[in-house]
TrEMBL record:
PANTHER family: MONOOXYGENASE, PUTATIVE (AFU_ORTHOLOGUE AFUA_6G14510)-RELATED. Keywords: Monooxygenase, Oxidoreductase. The keyword Kinase does not apply. Residues 126-149 are annotated as: Disordered. One of its GO terms (molecular function) is FAD binding. InterPro entries: FAD-bd (IPR002938), FAD-dep_Monooxygenase_BioMet (IPR050493), FAD/NAD-bd_sf (IPR036188). This is 2-polyprenyl-6-methoxyphenol hydroxylase. Residues 7-351 form the FAD-binding domain. It comes from the Bacteria.
Length: 417
């Protein structure tokens, strides 16, 4: 039997995880990436225990755990520096089997890309679904450029994985007219700088219609992120560093030091979108949607990348080992939809509810929010982790595809078929 072929559109975290999982299952995999190089856009990514256990399946969970840099207490603060709620990595580990690890996206991309054969990732290759396929007929992807070539090239595949992001062209091909993700009401900034000389505690700080977060990375740098309620598409004429200084420059340490350290061109900005409604399915024919292409969500639970990683492992589980070939794939992709659509849309809803809380700006609303967080902290730091109940405790449906050490809770569940 010929080795089945998968084509993945998009070399983000979800696309690369899917490619690695399918490759380890015996599929021939090609990844088509629009960008000219495999240099991830973004700065940090939160990897909760659910994502770490999914990464155990492909053998890189422990490498991610080794990137953990959060020590001591952290939590929620006001712009003046007052603590509203505190927690520790140990509290998350006790509740969910491990701490949340914040890694640089480039480090995670490097781990995932190293699992793939040479030449599997083709950059500078914009691609689109030309035919989603069906049982008895392969799917077709049309791409331009790549490997120094010009013109249009078609790829046929037993399986196409559409990991092409929030504004997915593949989603519109599969489900024409389905509502596109909606602007969530706020924009986000991100950057990475060296750690300041003065010590600080990891924190997320909520102000009027705005949020600032500071998290250490394992390499001695700091990942900073911020959100603010602004009209969609707005950009600062003076540059995004100047905009951050205007909005956050007088907030507590280490915010001013971090803003002083970042280059004017070192700040990434992007509007935040969330899925308006669930698509009819996460697949059609031989094509599956994955990550933001299926379920764009706000960043407030730190689960966007985590859910894409879960998608990838569950998709490879249902696609089956390469020896099984492509027969009956539509039935197996229907199982992928049944597993993933309800769970991911619940995460979209829960994350969106927290996102709306961050947009409160009136003094009475903020006072109510502050009182609620203060009361929560008095009841104990572990209660602050309840927002991740039913999310961070997820277990993958399959055992590891790669040999090597696993986490204490990694890869539970039945063995893959």
């Amino acid at each position: 039997m010929n080795q089945p072929r998968a084509v993945v559109i998009g070399a983000g975290i979800g696309g690369l995880t899917a490619a690695a999982a399918l490759h380890l299952r015996g599929w021939a995999v090609t990844v088509l990436e629009r960008a000219a190089a495999l240099e991830p856009v973004g700065a940090g990514i939160a990897l909760a225990p659910n994502a770490q256990r999914a990464l155990d399946v492909i053998g890189v969970g422990d490498a991610v755990r080794a990137m953990s840099a959060w020590q001591g207490e952290g939590g929620l603060r006001t712009p003046s520096g007052r603590w509203l709620s505190r927690t520790t990595p140990d509290a998350a580990a006790e509740r969910f089997g491990g701490p949340v690890v914040v890694a640089h996206r480039a480090d995670l991309v490097g781990l995932l890309a190293a699992l793939l054969p040479a030449g599997a990732v083709r950059t500078g290759t914009p691609a689109e679904v030309a035919d989603p396929g069906e049982d008895g007929r392969p799917a077709t992807v049309r791409a331009t450029g790549g490997d120094g070539r010009s013109g249009v090239r078609e790829y046929t595949a037993d399986l196409v994985v559409a990991a092409d992001g929030i504004h997915s062209a593949a989603r519109q091909v599969l489900f024409p007219g389905h509502p596109a993700p909606r602007y969530a009401g706020f924009t986000a900034w991100r950057f990475v700088v060296p750690a300041p000389e003065r010590p600080f505690s990891p924190h997320e700080t909520w102000g009027p219609g705005s949020v600032w977060g500071t998290v250490p990375l394992h390499d001695g740098r700091v990942y900073a992120y911020a959100t603010a309620t602004v009209p969609a598409g707005e950009r600062s004429p003076d540059g995004e560093r100047a905009e951050l200084l205007r909005r956050f420059g007088d907030w507590h340490h280490p915010v001013p030091d971090l803003l002083a350290a970042v280059r004017p061109d070192g700040v990434l900005r992007g509007d935040v979108y969330r899925a308006a409604t669930a698509p009819p399915a996460y697949h059609q024919g031989r094509t599956a949607l994955l990550g933001d292409a299926a379920h764009a969500m706000t960043p407030n639970l730190g689960q966007g990348g985590c859910q894409a990683i879960e998608d990838a492992v569950v998709l490879a589980h249902h696609a089956g080992p390469g020896a099984a070939g492509g027969a009956g794939l539509e039935r197996r992709l229907a199982a992928y939809t049944r597993d993933r659509l309800p769970r991911t849309m619940e995460v979209v809803r829960r994350s969106g509810r927290i996102g709306r809380l961050t947009t409160w700006s009136s003094p009475p609303a903020r006072a109510l929010r502050t009182a609620a967080f203060t009361a929560l902290d008095r009841l104990g730091p572990r209660l602050a982790l309840r927002s991740l109940d039913g999310i961070a405790d997820w277990e993958p449906p399959c055992a590891a595809y790669a040999a090597g050490p696993r986490g204490t809770r990694g890869g539970g569940g039945a063995a893959a078929p």
